[in-house]
Amino acid sequence: MKLIKELQENVIDEKVSLSTTLRKAKVLASLLKNDQFRKWVDDELNGYDGDSILPEYRQLSTQSYGTFANGFQMLKNSPLPTHHLPEVVQNYASQIDLRQGIKELESIAAIDDQALHFKWPPDMIAIIQREFSDSYALLDAWRAVGRSQIEGILDAIRNRLLEFILQLKDLRPEIVESEEAISQIPEEKVANVFKITIQGDHNVLATGTGFSQEVQQHVIAKDDKSLADALRRMNVSDKEIEELKSAIQTDGSRQKKSLGEGVRQWLGNMTGKAMEGAWKVAVDTAPGLLTKAISKYYGWE
């Protein structure tokens, strides 16, 4: 089978692993003699080192969670509010760069979990463990990445590679039948196609932006109704909203931008329901939006 035709069929067929498809794309890169395309294929196969510029589709938004204890009680799966922490910690808690090779990402995507955990380094936990509560210490923390986000990376790579192949075919239709014709495509044409199709901003992983803006606009400080309306739009039930109201009342006034134990427990319960599928939301984004809505209610944002 001719290389271009085989590559096109492989990239469309999700039963063919992306790692196998990219190895064939490496043969195409050799014929094209384009260093940029060759490096992109190598980076996707082997992983991006620390000196490589990471494509935007591998830069994910995430939510961090933690386990707290006070010697008598533990709070698990509690979303971490970080707006009062140093900017470097805020950025670490809300973003993650995935530099792994494609084979490893395919293995991660095959894990039968809705959310994957990437642990915080112990040194960072030790520095900030008393910054969240007067009575509870942070014991463990992690960044949650939804399996759908990993699958989004794989889809982005497939889509870009497919578009790259189709653009080359438009330039030289004869490459479908002749591998010699592939090497005859002018270098500047290949470079332009690469820039448009591989480097282009496809916005493949944008999630939650619209609702986040809605929270910013419509949750009013100390206004129970606006908070309840925002939560209902996230499929939070009236029963769960009443439980949150009760937790807020029990925790009392919060002046230090630190969530009380009752609200933390409620957030942990909601996270558990999302992971079990009992709360029909995107595991990787909704808990962060809950925290944002509650912070707006307290008047912290």
Question: How is this fold's topology laid out?
Answer:
Blueprint (H helix, E strand, L loop, with lengths): L2 H10 L5 H15 L2 H12 L12 E3 L1 E7 L4 E6 L7 H8 E3 L4 H8 L5 E5 L2 H7 L8 E10 H25 L7 H4 L4 H11 L11 H10 L5 H9 L5 H14 L9 H16 L9 H13 L3
Antiparallel strand pairs: 1-4, 2-3, 2-6, 5-6
Helix pairs in contact: 1-2, 1-7, 2-3, 5-7, 7-9, 10-14, 11-14, 12-13
What does this structure look like?
This protein has 301 residues and is of the alpha+beta class. It folds into 2 domains: 1-205, no CATH class; 207-301, no CATH class. 54% of the residues lie in helices and 11% in strands. It has helices spanning 3-12, 18-32, 35-46, 87-94, 102-109, 122-128, 147-171, 179-182, 187-197, 209-218, 224-232, 238-251, 261-276, 286-298, and strands at 59-61, 63-69, 74-79, 95-97, 115-119, 137-146. Helix 1 runs antiparallel to helix 7 (147-171) and helix 2 (18-32) runs antiparallel to helix 3 (35-46). The N and C termini lie far apart (59 Å).
Number of E-state strands: 6
In terms of DSSP E residues, the strand content is: 5-15%
Q: How much helical structure, as a percent, in the residues?
A: 40-55%
Radius of gyration in whole Å, from Cα? 23 Å
Helix/strand order: HHHEEEHEHEHEHHHHHHHH
- The strand order across the widest sheet is 3-2-6-5
Mean pLDDT: 85
